[in-house]
Design brief:
Elements lengths: L2 E5 L2 E4 L4 E8 L8 E6 L6 E6 L6 E3 L7 E6 L4 E6 L8 E7 L14 E2 L3 E6 L1
Parallel strand pairs: 2-11
Antiparallel strand pairs: 1-3, 3-8, 4-5, 4-9, 5-6, 7-8, 9-10, 9-11
């Protein structure tokens, strides 16, 4: 059984930065693609970013391209989301997820393992 635990959320002002971390416990996820999703208040969960198992290839939602960076440290079994130039519309609960294969997807239904989420609030 794999447990994903997110950390690093908080309340920041527009323009600030935050780095989220997602630590995997139970087994190594070095062979699994991983992703970040978010769920803004009153809205559905949406894709943010994903990384292949090696981290050599990444994809981003258009809304965060150029501001957010996903990375991973397989030795630490941890994936990160560096968020710069935060905007109020980035306010959401952020979730990390892992897929069984090494390939990433934009659809949440493709991911098997999920964390409990961490709240990010950006004030204007």
């Amino acid at each position: 059984q794999v447990q994903l635990v997110e950390s690093g959320g908080g309340l920041v002002q527009a323009g600030d930065s935050l780095r989220l971390a997602c630590a995997a416990h139970g087994r190594s996820l070095s062979n699994n693609a991983m992703a970040w999703f978010r769920q803004p208040p009153g809205k559905e969960r949406e894709f943010v970013a994903a990384s292949t198992r090696s981290g050599s290839s990444t994809i981003y939602a258009d809304s965060v391209e150029g501001r957010f960076t996903i990375s991973r440290d397989n030795a630490k079994n941890t994936v990160y989301l560096q968020m710069n130039s935060l905007k109020p519309e980035d306010t959401a609960v952020y979730y990390c997820a892992a897929v069984r294969s090494g390939s990433f997807y934009r659809t949440s239904s493709s991911y098997t393992f999920w964390g409990q989420g961490t709240q990010v609030t950006v004030s204007s």
